[in-house]
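Budget justification note: compute hours in this period were largely spent on complex prediction jobs such as the one shown. Inputs:
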Amino acid sequence: MAVEALTPRPSSAKEASPGRAWWIEPALTVVAYSAFVIYATWSVFDQVNVVFDPYVSPFFSTWLGFGLVRFPIFGILIPILAVIPLGLRGSCYYYRKSYFRSFFWDPPACAIQELKRGRYHGETRFPWVLNNYHRYFLLLSVVVIVFLWVDVVRAFTYHGHFFIGLGSLILLLNVVLLSLYTFTCHSFRYVMGGRIDAFSRVLAGKLWHRVVMLLNWANPRHGLYAWVSMFSVALTDVYVRLLMAGVLHEPRWIA
Ligand code: FES
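Corresponding output:
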């Protein structure tokens, strides 16, 4: 039997894809992630309540969920609570792959040799050890999603009447995308079915099985939901700010 000689892995993306602009995707990723982090940081530290009745920016939802009361610690509280979605995205399996490839080029793609940067310690040292807390960020994010849905219900109510504005629809779309991102998480799939050995032996096993099959089907789209929900959060915040500034006058319908 003929034995094929193993070819060594290419040492760089350039070598693996000669003549191709392989760097465009990681460069765009760096630009998009950096822009989002800068914008989100500015928004939560801006000390302005991004609220235009009945809309509230998703960056401020959790605070308002605690009762529409302005706390004196507001300026500190919002950035602290922002750690939850930031922690979820920062430790997300999709984002990890993405930022290791784009920011560190370590390696920039699969089938490319790793960079030689001393001993590899995996996720045993700060800051990468924080990635082990992903499941906890996920569970906290599920609570945040509940608050966001409450905000969407509020966005369809104006002075006690049913109401639809362009902003109501934007908030709804945003929370749908965020929910898709959160519930297609790998850890969520494990929480829902990872401990079950045989669905036939657990209570409501058929139902559990359907739920897990649905999550299995949706999970490969997790990366897509990560991207679109990131844009939708920022654009929803921008939209509410434009309304506050009087730059936009949206169409509204009140029953
Ligand atoms: S949120 Fe992406 S893997 Fe959990």
